[in-house]
Structure formats: C-alpha cells, structure tokens
Design goal:
This protein has 132 residues and is of the alpha+beta class. It has a domain of 80 residues. The chain has 3 helices and 8 strands. Strands 1, 4, 5, 6, 7 and 8 form a 6-stranded antiparallel sheet that branches. A two-stranded antiparallel sheet has the order 2-3. The chain is globular, with a radius of gyration of 14 Å. The termini are far apart.
Length: 132
C-alpha cells in the first residue's frame, strides 16, 4: 500500500551491500518498486515504515537509499533508530536479500522524499542503462 507523504520528512540512510559469489545476488536487489503503480511504495517491518530505492548496481556493490519512518512513542533517538535499521537490514539479508552481505550503513539524516525519484519507472531508468 502506497502512503502519500507529500513534503513529509523522514529519515534517510545509504546502505552498501556486497554481492557474494552467489549468482542469486542480482536477482534479489532490494527495492520497493511496485510495477502495478509504477512508483516506489512504502512497506512495513516491525516498528518501521520503509521505502527502498536502488542507486547503484555493480558486480562489486549494490547501493540503496533507505527511507524510514519509525512508529511508536515520539521520535526515536538517533542511536535507537540506527539499531532498528541495523536489525532491519540483518533480517532482510537472512530472508529476502539472498547473495548479498552488508558492506556499510550511513548515519540516518532527516530528508524529504525526492518526488522525481519516487515517480521513476524502473531500476533501468534510474541507472540509465539496461541490466544484464
């Protein structure tokens, strides 16, 4: 379900994932792109609402932008939010992101969702080339 955020602020982190020797790495590039709506959708995990937009895909690394909004009592402190994001990434690597391992997670920063990125159509359009 897509949630309209408008100019709503959320937290943004850049996550670097490293493909393993497993050929499944590139079949499980993290994204929340919805082909039916041709936009990126918000998803739910534990106490987080999140959106994932891939930024770079190569045989050496996969870089994604993770937009998150934590739910609960008040705004979580930065350390608690970083731990929630770490737990989210580790859970996804174990379950859905087969063939990828964690390379790094940047610190969370407040950001508005970039409208032009959210409306783009496919990973190929973002990267400007066809994936092989």
């Amino acid at each position: 379900m897509a949630i309209a955020r408008g100019t709503h602020k959320c937290e943004q982190v850049t996550i670097t994932l490293v493909p393993t020797a497993d050929e499944r790495s590139f079949r499980h590039v993290p994204t929340t792109f919805s082909p039916a709506e041709r936009t990126y959708a918000w998803r739910h995990f534990d106490k987080l609402e999140y959106m994932i937009i891939p930024k770079k895909i190569s045989n050496k690394e996969v870089t994604i932008e993770l937009f998150v909004e934590a739910h609960g009592k008040g705004k979580p402190n930065p350390v608690h939010l970083q731990k929630m994001i770490q737990q989210f990434v580790q859970a996804k690597i174990k379950s859905e992101w087969m063939g990828l391992k964690l390379g790094g997670i940047s610190r969370a920063k407040t950001a508005a969702l970039p409208d032009q990125i959210v409306r783009r159509g496919t990973i190929e359009e973002i990267l400007g080339a066809q994936l092989e």
